[in-house]
Structure formats: structure tokens, C-alpha cells
Amino acid sequence: MADFIIPGHGPTFKVELKEQKRTKENFRKRMREVKELDITADNLVKSLESLLKEKGHEVKQEQQRNRELDAKFKNLLQEKESIEAQLQKILDNHYTEKSELSSKIKSLQEEKKTLKDVKEQNKQCEHLSDSDSTEVDLDSSIFLQEDVGWQPIDHEQPSSHSVKKVQDQKNKRYLEKAQARSEENLRNTSNEVSNIKSRLIDVEHEKIMLVKQLTQFRSRLKSELERVQITTCGLFFALSLHDTFHVRTKNPLLALNFYKLNRASHLNLIYSSYIVLWYSMYSNV
């Protein structure tokens, strides 16, 4: 007796049933994968949200620290400008003192030359007083000063030997006083030179300290800025990942295709976000 064949159910009916079962099993398997990925994504999003909530306070603190750093930076810039102004003032004073010292040294050299000429004239006067000679022409123009006791001897006028001797003694006393003043001026000048040299050493030391302070400030500011940049980059990256996983489709087939096509890249982004967040939270940069 021939097999009874239901219309629409030919010999390939069993094969079609097997294919349908296989398709349904594959679909269920894929849906399970989608659900697992969805659960994983939900857990990751929740963990990211909790981390973002925890980092919110830290972000505010970072912003406050940034404002404090800006204020410190402005204060340090003002301090640097004031230090540079003080340094320039010190250098200007140094150049002024140096020029004054040069002029004093020059005047002192001229005074020494004058004193030497006076000594030579004194020797000539002593020689004349000893020999009673009146034929030497003395150039006494350098002794014409109102505040000194020098009186040049007029050899053309007749005078006694005692008067000339008294005048020579007065001239000797004046020369001794002039020599004492010159020696005192030399000592004062040498003291001023030593003081200026010590001030120059202090200025150089102050310049070195200022440069060291500026270098330390720049390195400290650079490290603070790098730490703030790393923390900010990690937070923005986590926010972008949160926005990516927060918007999901409700169609299972579209979700399946979406996760199959982008599963590897999404997992890489998730792992990268965790690494960046961990580094930004626990790094000591």
C-alpha cells in the first residue's frame, strides 16, 4: 500500500523540519549570547556609572586644584617679575657704584700726582732754604687753595732766613696733612672696592637662587598639569563609553548583528576605559 502524502508535505518535509529546528536552535543560541553580552554591558555600564559618581567629587576637587594652580601660577609670575625688577635695580646700582668708584679712583690718582708734585716742590724749597738761594722759579699755582695753609715763598722780595724757615715749616705741615688725607682717601676707596666686590658676590648668589627657584616652579607646574590632563582624559573617555552603551536597540536581530560586528571593538574599549580609570585614580603623577 502506497504511503499517504499530505498535500504540502512532500518527501523533503523531514529535512525542512530539521533545518527549521537547527535554525531555531542557532537563533536561541545567538539570543543567549546577545543576552549574555547585554548583561555584561549592563554590568559594565553600572560599574562605570558608579565610578563616574565616585569621580564626580574628585573632578570638582581637580577643578578647585586647577583654580588654585592658576592662582599660584599668577602669583609666581608676579613674584618672578618683581624679582627680575629687583635684580635689574641691583645691577643698575652696581653699574652706578662702579662708575662712581672709577671716577673716585681717577680723582685719587690725580691727587696722588699732585701730592708727588708737592713733595718735589717741598724738596726744592728745602734745598733753597739750606743754600739761601733765590734763583729757583717755583710753580706754585697748584697750591692756590682757600682752605689750606700753603703760602708760596716769594724769593724776589727781601726777607730774612728765619721768615723763610717758618714758611717752609708751615708748608711741610700742610704737605703732611695732604698726605694723610690722601692715605685716608686710599683706605676709604679700598674699603669701598671690597664692599662692592662683596655686593657683587651677593648679587651673583641671589641670581643663582632665583634661577633655581624658577626651575623648581616650572617642574612642579608641569607635573601638576600632566596629572590634571591624565585625570581629565580618563573621565571624558569613560563618559563617551557610557554614552555608547547607554543607547541600545530593542530589536533582537539588530542587537545580534550590532554585537557580532562590534563585539571585539566594544570589549577593547571597555578594557581600555577600565585601565584609564584605574590609572587616573591610583597614579601619583
Present the secondary structure layout.
Blueprint: H1 13-131, H2 161-246, H3 252-282
Helix pairs in contact: 1-2, 1-3, 2-3
Coiled coil: 17-128
Region (Disordered): 152-171
Keywords: Coiled coil
Task: Describe the sheet with the most strands.
Answer: none
Number of strands: 0
Spans with pLDDT under 50 lasting ≥5 residues? 1-5, 132-150, 242-256, 258-263
Q: Helix count, per DSSP?
A: 3
% residues in beta strands: under 5%
Radius of gyration: 52 Å
Rounded average pLDDT: 67
Kindly name the structural category: mainly alpha
When the domains are counted, the total is 1
Distance between the termini: 89 Å
Helical content stands at: over 70%
Q: Categorize the overall geometry.
A: rod-shaped
Helix and strand sequence: HHH
Describe this structure in words.
The protein is mainly alpha-helical and 285 residues long. It has one domain. Helices cover 83% and strands 0% of the residues. The chain has three helices and no strands. Helix 1 runs antiparallel to helix 2 (161-246) and helix 1 (13-131) runs parallel beside helix 3. It is rod-shaped. Residues 1-5, 132-150, 242-256 and 258-263 have low confidence and may be disordered.
Write out key terms for the chains shown.
mainly alpha, coiled coil, 0% strand, 285 residues, 3 helices, disordered N terminus, rod-shaped
